[in-house]
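Backbone geometry:

***
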Amino acid sequence: MKNKNSFIEFMADAGVLTFGDFTTKSGRKTPYFVNTGNYKTGMHISVLGDYYAQLVVDSGEKFDALYGPAYKGITLAAATASSLYRNHGINVPYFFNRKEVKDHGEGGSLIGYKPKDGDKIIIIEDVVTAGTAVRESMQLLKGIADVKITALYVSVDRMERGTGEQSTLNELKLEYGINVYSIINAKDIIASFPQGDERISKMEAYLVKYAGI
C-alpha cells in the first residue's frame, strides 16, 4: 500500500484528485473527481510515466507496442514508453491516433509505430468511466491490422458499474478477453484516509450505490 499511498498523495498535490460535488458523464453525482488534465508539468508527466511503467512491468504482460488513445492517452503512452526504457531497460515503440484522419502528407489515422499482423498491443489510458474510448480503440486497432490487444492500464479504477452489474473494467475484460490493471482503485483512496473523514464517508456511500462486481 506504500506505493499506492504515495500515488494518491501525488494525485492530490497535482490537483488531480479532488473532493466536492461533481457530475460524471453518466449523470451520476459523485463526491470525488479524478481530473488527469491537471497533470501539467515536466515533473508530473515524468513521475506519472514511472508509475505506469512499474505497473506494466509488475503485470508481467508480453507486448510489442503501447497505444495511447487521443487525447490524454497520447502523453501517457509516451511517458510510459520513456520510463520503461529509462528505468527498466525495455525499449518498445508507442503510437497514438488522430481524432480526424489526415488525407495529406503521410496520411492515415495513426502517429508513431505502425502495428502489423500478430502484434500484441497494450492500451494506456487515464480513467475509464463508461469504456467508450476503449471500445473505440479496439475497433480502430482491429481495423488496421490483425493485432491482439492483451491488456489495458489505467491510473484509477473507480470500481463503478458499467451497463450491467459488472464494473466497467470487468465488462471490458469479459467483452474483449483482455487483462485490466490499475495503479490504484477507489478502495485504495478510502483506505488512505483516517476513519470518520467526511470525504471518505461520502465515497463509501457512493460505492455502496454504484459499485460493480
In short: The chain has a mean pLDDT of 92. Residues 42-59 form the longest helix (18 residues).
